[in-house]
């Protein structure tokens, strides 16, 4: 797999999603008031009650988009640095999704999963974050993740997952960071150095 091309792809996708969402909410926030004035002066003034709510939705959505920028920048940066150090050379065909204990409106607060190879090797419980983050009204899990993923990274520190069936990306790290600290301390120096260069020696998500 061409890791360099996928690295550019995930970066472009995050930028496009941010610009698209910000643009839609900005149009709703600033365009709806103008349209409200036009509708009020038209022969169908009752349309104001349909158009006006879009202003509130646009403002809330724009604020949420702006608030998500710092997290998106950190996660995308970590993803890019990880793909600069590792390639997608490991395939995990069996994925078990485990929702977080707490959920908000049906969406898990923390999405966790375990990965298993065809030979039966199992990963620690991993916390994952889709890249880019999926909209609140959509299924938060990357489409097709149940069919297996390719992984670039070192699971004791963190890794980037790629779902070939849908082209989705996600960043993951051990859910219990403290419990897996022993594995990181026992890692060979070259593994530690590589993880440091990928900025995976600290909790990111």
Rounded mean pLDDT score: 86
Q: How would you write the strand order of the largest sheet?
A: 1-7-8-9-6-5-2
| Radius of gyration of CA atoms, rounded to a whole number | 21 Å
Name the poorly predicted regions. Answer: none
Write down how many β-strands occur, each being a DSSP E stretch of 2 or more residues: 9
Terminal Cα separation, in Å? 26 Å
Anisotropy-based shape: elongated
Q: By helix and strand content, what is the structural category?
A: alpha+beta
- The number of helical elements comes to 5
What can be said about the biggest beta sheet?
7 strands, antiparallel
Outline of the structure:
The chain is an alpha+beta fold. The protein has helices at 3-40, 48-51, 53-85, 181-185, 189-197; strands at residues 90-92, 94-99, 103-104, 107-108, 111-116, 126-131, 149-154, 158-163, 168-174.
Describe the structure.
The protein has 205 residues and is an alpha+beta fold. 43% of the residues lie in helices and 21% in strands. It contains five helices and nine strands; from the N terminus they run αααβββββββββαα. The strands form two sheets. It has a seven-stranded antiparallel beta sheet. A two-stranded antiparallel ribbon has the order 3-4. β7 (149-154) and β8 form a beta hairpin. α1 runs antiparallel to α3.
């Amino acid at each position: 797999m061409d890791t360099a091309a996928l690295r550019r792809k995930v970066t472009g996708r995050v930028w496009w999603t941010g610009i698209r969402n910000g643009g839609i909410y900005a149009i709703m926030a600033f365009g709806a008031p103008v349209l409200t004035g036009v509708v009020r002066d038209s022969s169908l003034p009752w349309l104001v009650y349909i158009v006006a709510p879009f202003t509130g939705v646009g403002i809330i959505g724009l604020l949420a988009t702006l608030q998500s920028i710092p997290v998106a920048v950190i996660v995308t940066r970590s993803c890019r640095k990880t793909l600069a150090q590792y390639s997608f050379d490991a395939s995990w065909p069996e994925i078990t999704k485990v929702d977080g204990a707490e959920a908000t409106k049906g969406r898990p607060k923390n999405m966790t999963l375990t990965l298993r190879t065809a030979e039966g090797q199992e990963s620690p419980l991993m916390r994952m974050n889709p890249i880019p983050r999926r909209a609140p009204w959509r299924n938060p899990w990357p489409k097709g993740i149940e069919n297996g993923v390719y992984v670039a990274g070192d699971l004791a520190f963190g890794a980037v997952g790629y779902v070939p069936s849908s082209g989705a990306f996600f960043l993951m790290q051990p859910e219990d960071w403290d419990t897996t600290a022993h594995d990181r301390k026992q890692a060979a120096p070259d593994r530690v150095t590589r993880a440091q260069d990928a900025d995976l020696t600290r909790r990111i998500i």
